[in-house]
Design brief:
Elements lengths: L15 H15 L4 E2 L2 H8 L14 E3 L4 H14 L3 E4 L22 E4 L6 E5 L4 E4 L5 H10 L4 E2 L11 H6 L15 E7 L5 E3 L33 E8 L1 E2 L3 E9 L5 H13 L7 E5 H4 L18 H11 L4 E9 L1 H18 L3 E4 L9 H7 L11 H4 L3 E6 L2 E3 L2 H17 L6 E5 L3 E11 L3 H20 L12 H7 L2 H14 L15
Parallel strand pairs: 2-4, 3-4
Antiparallel strand pairs: 1-2, 5-6, 6-10, 7-11, 8-9, 8-10, 12-14, 12-15, 13-14, 13-18, 16-19, 17-19, 18-19
Helix pairs in contact: 1-3, 6-9, 6-12, 12-13
Protein name: 4-cresol dehydrogenase (Hydroxylating)
Keywords: FAD, Flavoprotein, Oxidoreductase
Cofactor: FAD
């Protein structure tokens, strides 16, 4: 049985007649209620936070499957009718500029798969610390499951993450703030619907009856999981994750530094502690203008045009108690281990001769410390959405170049970013997230999307940031849909040709998310 469909857009290159035939087939597979068309039902999916016209990134329909067999049939139908399909886990990738991914640049009006009904926690092994999830599972759902079943495991999550998907974040190679914060490193085993509808289970998942799918990443032969991250080679319908055993003790702490240029010395102090695993989690260095939006309105200190003047930033820092840089990290283990490592950390800060260090007891009940302390043990809330209120107008893009964990490089990146952002009239809302030897430099470019000039400036600013940083040997590790081609160019023609070769081999009709990460047939 089919129902009347309200069609306002068809995918590029697909006639209305052919698209209607495809929609009838989709309805037969997932049911009429799970095929969404028309302005009323699609409007929630069409909002973006990028400096682009939302209609340019609008989708033609949304499909909501309930099982992997339905996903396989959807892909086969897409091949039959030449309909491109863009999968999204929960559609809440706010940091990279969009509510629900629908298109990449130059590929308009695709059909979206929304996995909200495929939200089962399929297995959790409390002894081995593993989980097997569907893509619609949220971080909050997983945390609640562990708590309700009294399972002593922690989840590493990004911020803010309660409504986001562990599968989606891991596929985009996102990071978190616990010792398990390199999320793809903690992934083990995938189930993937390939562009021809075949079902692939990677590594040990290919062995019938295997019980080691979620414990041994490699299997036999080439390691395949990586090619399905940040790509359009298949649709992941199950993913295994490693969860962190709850430690006997946990000690979050905060170090406040007064001056912008302190960032170089901070990094060089913290790097050896991170590499030696004295501090085992992803350390965060948050600038004052990243801290402020979570707790105060921008207008409290500056309500004029352009970037906030330095004098007003200094006044804000003094009044609110922010450092120019605010460092958050934690110690984990037995009380005895923490006591030894705490002395090493405090000795390092003392030897630096600058910075004030505070414990949870010192900062009890204060924000944003409490938020960070929760995040570093896998707790979450939506506090960091305060960033999106800072300027107002609903515009946001994260610019996230990678650098080495050396103070000189970090200082260089900070100065470059500040100069470009301020010249275009935007604040430097930035933080560094420290891996073992690398740093993710995450900057939220906040703008007023209701203001055409501000929106145009934001697009030009992002373009300049990507190009200028490329000229200095830096590139981002993630980006939003509007800038995927430009970022892909930063990685050179050989990488692009290899990516295209894989796409042509696996998806010769270019059905799955054409243009994602700059990859086309």
């Amino acid at each position: 049985m089919t129902t009347q469909l309200d069609i306002t857009l068809t995918p590029d290159g697909v006639t209305l007649e052919r698209f209607m035939q495809a929609l009838a087939r989709f309805q037969a597979v997932v049911g009429p209620d799970n095929v969404l068309t028309g302005e009323d039902r699609l409007t929630p999916y069409r909002k973006t936070m990028m400096p682009v016209a939302d209609e340019d990134y609008a989708m033609s329909a949304v499909l909501q499957p309930t099982g992997v067999e339905q996903v396989q049939e959807i892909v086969r139908i897409c091949n039959d009718f030449g309909v491109p399909v863009w999968p999204t886990s929960t559609g809440r990738n706010f940091g990279y500029g969009t509510y629900a991914h629908g298109n990449a640049r130059g590929h308009r009006h695709q059909v979206v798969i929304d996995f909200r009904h495929m939200n089962r926690i399929l297995a959790v092994d409390a002894e081995l610390g593993t989980a097997l999830l569907e893509p619609g599972v949220t971080y909050q759902q997983l945390v609640d499951y562990l708590e309700e079943n009294d399972i002593p495991l922690w989840v590493s999550c990004p911020a803010p993450s309660a409504i986001a998907s562990p599968v989606g974040n891991t596929l985009d190679r996102g990071v978190g703030y616990t010792p398990y914060g390199e999320h793809f490193m903690m992934q083990c085993g995938m189930e993937v619907v390939l562009p021809n509808g075949d079902l692939l289970r990677t590594a040990m998942g290919g062995v019938e009856g295997s019980n080691s799918w979620q414990v041994f990443k490699w299997g036999y032969g080439p390691y395949l999981d990586g090619i399905f991250t940040q790509s359009n080679y298949g649709i992941v319908t199950k993913m295994g994750l490693w969860l962190m055993p709850k430690p006997p003790a946990y000690k979050p702490f905060y170090i406040r530094f007064r001056d912008d240029d302190d960032i170089a010395e901070i990094v060089d102090m913290m790097r050896p502690l991170r590499m030696a695993n004295i501090i085992p989690n992803a350390v965060v260095f948050a600038h004052a203008l990243w801290e402020a939006p979570a707790v105060i309105p921008r207008s409290k200190y500056y309500d004029g045009p352009g970037a906030m003047p330095q004098a007003d930033i200094e006044r804000m820092k003094e009044a609110e108690g922010f450092g120019a840089w605010n460092v958050y990290a934690a110690l984990y283990g037995t009380p005895e281990q923490i006591e030894v490592n705490w002395k090493i950390v405090t000795d390092a800060v003392r030897a630096l001769g600058k910075g004030e260090i505070f414990t949870q007891e010192d900062m009890a009940g204060t924000e944003p410390f409490e938020y960070r302390a929760a995040l570093m043990r896998g707790g979450m809330n939506l506090q960091e959405f305060g960033l999106y209120r800072w300027r107002g107008g609903g515009g946001s893009m994260w610019f996230a170049p990678v650098t080495v964990a050396k103070g000189s490089e970090t200082l260089k990146q900070t100065r470059m970013a500040m100069e470009i952002l301020n010249r275009w009239g935007f604040d430097y809302c930035g933080e560094y997230i420290v891996g073992m030897r690398d740093m993710h430099h995450v900057i939220d470019l906040l703008f007023d999307k209701t203001d055409p000039e501000d929106t145009s400036n934001a697009h030009a600013c992002m373009t300049e940031l990507i190009e200028t940083f490329r000229q200095h040997g830096y590139a981002v590790y993630r980006t939003n849909n509007a800038f995927m081609d430009q970022v892909a160019e930063c990685y050179g023609p050989v990488q692009r040709r290899v990516n295209q070769t894989l796409k042509r081999a696996l998806d010769p009709k270019g059905i799955i998310a054409p243009g994602k990460s700059g990859i086309t047939v």
